[in-house]
Amino acid sequence: MTTTPVPRHTVPFDVHLVLRRDGAVGPEVLLSRRAGPVYATGLWHLPSGHLDPGEDMVEGVIREAREETGVLIAAADVTVAVTVHHRPPRGGNSRIGVFFEVRRWAGRPGVREPDRCDGMGWYPLDALPEPMVAYCRAGLDAYRAGMPAAVHFQRLGDLVAYAAGGVDRTHLLPGPTPPPPDGADRGTATCS
Length: 192
Prior knowledge:
There is one protein chain. The chain is α+β, with helices and mostly antiparallel strands. The protein has 2 helices and 9 strands. The protein has helices spanning 57-69, 134-145; strands at residues 13-23, 26-34, 44-45, 48-50, 78-87, 95-102, 117-124, 149-153, 170-173.
């Protein structure tokens, strides 16, 4: 008897740059406004993109930063901040987005792809602009809350843009509980 193999679930992989600096009233992040014939035109978003073939995720976020903003980042200055499993509101497959925090770079950020971006600026992490891509906002909300991951599964008909006071499909996922300070395992599970 022959069985047909079940296809594996595959998802696109996005990288997002949380370029962070200390502002006058607290931490600020660099955002760009999407423009032209791209997804979510007119909405604010982090510099981001897809991986190129053969590229690892750190190389991808460094490349996207250079292409979109002109800043140069060393691999040693890239840290993982949040992973978001996202499903868009217009149907289709889900995707994985990894948000990387960078606090040190060379160069001055500016619009480098005017066919895809018509504005760029620093915004307080606690006062993000609207309209913003809901997927991006989910990642930044998890980042602000100190959570390592989130699930953001939108439904058909949900808005692409985040709406304050609207339906929020973000489910924040905490990380593991740290061990007790003395290092002793206080678990009750046993193996037989």
